[in-house]
Amino acid sequence: xxxxxxxxxxxxxxxxxxxxxxxxxxxxxxxxxxxxxxxxxxxxxxxxxxxxxxxxxxxxxxxxxxxxxxxxxxxxxxxxxxxxxxxxxxxxxxxxxxxxxxxxxxxxxxxxxxxxxxxxxxxxxxxxxxxxxxxxxxxxxxxxxxxxxxxxxxxxxxxxxxxxxxxxxxxxxxxxxxxxxxxxxxxxxxxxxxxxxxxxxxxxxxxxxxxxxxxxxxxxxxxxxxxxxxxxxxxxxxxxxxxxxxxxxxxxxxxxxxxxxxx
Amino acid sequence: xxxxxxxxxxxxxxxxxxxxxxxxxxxxxxxxxxxxxxxxxxxxxxxxxxxxxxxxxxxxxxxxxxxxxxxxxxxxxxxxxxxxxxxxxxxxxxxxxxxxxxxxxxxxxxxxxxxxxxxxxxxxxxxxxxxxxxxxxxxxxxxxxxxxxxxxxxxxxxxxxxxxxxxxxxxxxxxxxxxxxxxxxxxxxxxxxxxxxxxxxxxxxxxxxxxxxxxxxxxxxxxxxxxxxxxxxxxxxxxxxxxxxxxxxxxxxxxxxxxxxxxxxxxxxxxxxxxxxxxxxxxxxxxxxxxxxxxxxxxxxxxxxxxxxxxxxxxxxxxxxxxxxxxxxxxxxxxxxxxxxxxxxxxxxxxxxxxxxxxxxxxxxxxxxxxxxxxxxxxxxxxxxxxxxxxxxxxxxxxxxxxxxxxxxxxxxxxxxxxxxxxxxxx
Amino acid sequence: xxxxxxxxxxxxxxxxxxxxxxxxxxxxxxxxxxxxxxxxxxxxxxxxxxxxxxxxxxxxxxxxxxxxxxxxxxxxxxxxxxxxxxxxxxxxxxxxxxxxxxxxxxxxxxxxxxxxxxxxxxxxxxxxxxxxxxxxxxxxxxxxxxxxxxxxxxxxxxxxxxxxxxxxxxxxxxxxxxxxxxxxxxxxxxxxxxxxxxxxxxxxxxxxxxxxxxxxxxxxxxxxxxxxxxxxxxxxxxxxxxxxxxxxxxxxxxxxxxxxxxxxxxxxxxxxxxxxxxxxxxxxxxxxxxxxxxxxxxxxxxxxxxxxxxxxxxxxxx
Lengths: 263, 427, 318
Hints:
Oligomer: heterotrimer
CATH topology of one domain in chain A: Rossmann fold
Helix content of chain A: 25-40%
Largest sheet of chain A: 6 strands, mixed
Number of strands of chain B: 4
CATH superfamily of one domain in chain A: P-loop containing nucleotide triphosphate hydrolases
CATH architecture of the largest domain in chain B: Orthogonal Bundle
Strand content of chain A: 15-25%
Radius of gyration of chain A: 19 Å
Order of helices and strands of chain A: HEEEHEEHEHHHEHEHEEHH
Strand order of the largest sheet of chain B: 1-2
CATH topology of the largest domain in chain B: ABC transporter involved in vitamin B12 uptake, BtuC
Number of domains of chain B: 2
Largest sheet of chain B: 2 strands, antiparallel
């Protein structure tokens, strides 16, 4: 239903627009001209076999690596040459496939740090973080959302895997970015944990643009409004879950096998 | 006492629990010279206070920001040189600048130098940062011998602190007056450094230390965060340098060379980089060890080296880390359980260490004493270092002590485990 | 012209000596990601051990045995020290090797005292090999060049022609991959650390007689070696070679030819102030190249880091 309301907006500036994006490492061309347009408020999943370049695509969009050629636009602004922190300030936030948190800091500190820039604290050295009730409150609200309130003061490094994944998502959404990119949020999780994370993602990305890489087809079809299939650095199909499911190219290349295995 | 409107909108600025350590610390600083009144004691306390400021500033880099510097003495030395020059300007031109404000100039100069160096050295943390700090440190130490106008060459620059306008009738002729000046700056700088660690940029320094890449995806440039920490550390190192200049009235190349930078790393690490009070402990213990051991033995630096390497290998949290390991047993009310095993293990270990040290002292005397000088004294006993009995006693004591400690170690390990387990936690 | 040749030879000797240290350091860094701060301390141990052995068995046995002992010590340090600290991360590793450097210096003073050791060039090499325009080139210098070049050829052979060498080389370029292939066994670590420190030991043995054997010799050379590998690019062997020779020649030439800053400043159009005592920049005007020879490497390093952060040949950061 979300897709319906959002598809009407597709004539407006897309949240994320990628044109002919290419990346080579040495002679190997990993990204071979990707074109993708993701509307504001859309929940978009990128799927594809291992080694298709999904994580590389994320790294190119978020400024972790510079692309060899092609453009990425966030709300119409060209991201060429911008560093990750600059892109983040423009309202794009991402999570990582391998849990990427601040292990020695407390769970609460993790979340609070991810709020600082967005709350306008910048590099200030004249005000105390623990004096701002608004900041503390916001951090506690995020903890509540990701169900980690009772882990508040533990070092993040000692949390269970699923809890660390939840914290990773919490850090990603805390800054209030309106484009959220999640790289395999449910990787390595049990069924119940996956359900919990899926529910969490649905809640925290309400009214936001979501781009995610995911292997679990249950999550993909449960969450995504539209799906893109990336195979060997090219997008072979984009569309609603039904369209993608029915696409013979996708069936052939990838999805059929997975679907059979899944069901 | 508390402003109610403030209370309702924000957490209180000052809580009793938060202010208590600072009050106790300040009181302690006030009372100390009444307890230890001798001049040498006050000299040691002055040195301690200066070292504390320097070590805290160093820990802004190493502990808070994860930057290992081999050249932090540069900023202290630069601040010191600037201050001693200021003292001379005051003397030469009769400037109405009172002595107590001088450290601020040292701080500002240290900060300025840190801004220049930091502009390229904070690009990366880790090994690259360490190497640049080493190179810059060596470069400036070498320059200090060449550029005589500012650094005064081999003999350094000296000044006279008593030439400024008196402050409330105090001319800083006496050590004790300098002590209170130093103590004031110590409390002020320590408080400011502590507060810095609570600011957004101070918190982000921790984040960048732990995971610089993730911090970048939260909107912060790791490089800028490091730069701010670096500049702040340079400021407080400069203040320490200013205090040094006031205290000793001379600053030389030795204040900014690699040896000085190395010892502050050692002091900070021994104290513990993980906690704010670690460097304070380190500075106090190190200064005491230095003043006591260097009178007793010629090879105290060897002991210090051994202690340092052992700390890095077995207690990377330093002294503060070891102390804080005990908070859980205390909170569980089980610290009592540790007392007996500690005595049973650590006492023999201590005796073993004393035996080993005795053996090393005798060996050193054997090898390096002047020919024919066979008599040495150790642990208040005089004996012939060339006879077999003393060294045999030392070796036997060492072996016996360590054997006993090793025998009782499992008991300690069990007690430690028990003390850290909540009641009913394990069936 | 002849003087240039003499200085070229002198610079070559210094450069090769530096390379013997920086090569080992680079190997260790590339394999293990740890910069061995105590590297120059092993060089010092090499000199002291060789001196001690030479008292009983002569110089040549010292040259043979001392590096082996140093290498074994290095391997032990890796096995029982570094490997333990490794779990805490790279910064503690660096702090550990720093502590080790302090400790070794103190131990050397404990055993041999603070004075310089009478460790000298063996009699058989105490003649001048040839002379260039009246400048005698001592045979020992020629010997040093031969020894170092010989060792590099050996090292090159091991690196390019043997299996172990292949693994090490692969580790230089693709550390992660090699690790993933299961090659990064602790034994290789220990071996590389041992060999690296043994190389430093050899350098110590042959440098001890000419650069004098005293407790401060590690500090004197230590920082320069770090500067060398930073200039060359961390982890690059060829970079280390180029930087070593560069530094060897720069310092030698700066000392041999007195270039005056005054001339240079006048040449670019500055006027010397009449009253020098009042000028803050008076020391800049009176600088001469021999005076600054020893800080040129540091200056070079800072410049390199500002304009080429990865060094001359470096590709990756720490």
